[in-house]
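Budget justification aside, the reviewers requested a transparent look at the raw inputs and outputs of the sequence design task funded under Objective 1. We therefore reproduce one unedited record. The lines immediately below are the C-alpha cells for a 85-residue chain.
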C-alpha cells in the first residue's frame, strides 16, 4: 500500500519578507523552503566548520532567526516556520 504524502507539508506557504530574501517571494511548500534555506547556507558557507549542526547566520538569516547569530538545525526549522503563512 502506497503511503500518501502529508498534505500539510505540500501545501504552498507564503514566506515573510525577510524569509523571501532567501527563498524567493512565491508561495512554496515547506519542504521546498527548507531545501532553499539549506542551499543558501551551503552557497554562503554558513554551516559551522567545527560543529556541522550549527548554522552561523549572516545578516539576512539573522533576521529570520530572530536576531540570533548561531542556531542549530532543529532550532532553524522552528524559526523558519514562524516566517511562513
Amino acid at each position: 500500500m502506497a503511503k500518501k504524502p502529508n498534505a500539510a507539508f505540500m501545501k504552498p506557504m507564503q514566506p515573510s519578507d525577510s524569509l523571501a530574501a532567501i527563498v524567493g517571494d512565491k508561495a512554496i511548500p515547506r519542504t521546498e523552503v527548507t531545501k532553499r534555506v539549506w542551499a543558501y547556507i551551503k552557497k554562503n558557507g554558513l554551516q559551522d566548520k567545527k560543529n556541522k549542526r550549527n548554522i552561523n547566520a549572516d545578516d539576512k538569516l539573522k533576521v529570520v532567526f530572530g536576531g540570533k547569530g548561531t542556531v542549530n538545525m532543529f532550532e532553524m526549522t522552528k524559526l523558519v516556520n514562524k516566517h511562513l503563512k
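The helical segments are 7-10, 17-23, 30-43, 59-64, 73-81. The chain has five helices and four strands. Computational costs for records of this kind are itemized in the attached budget.
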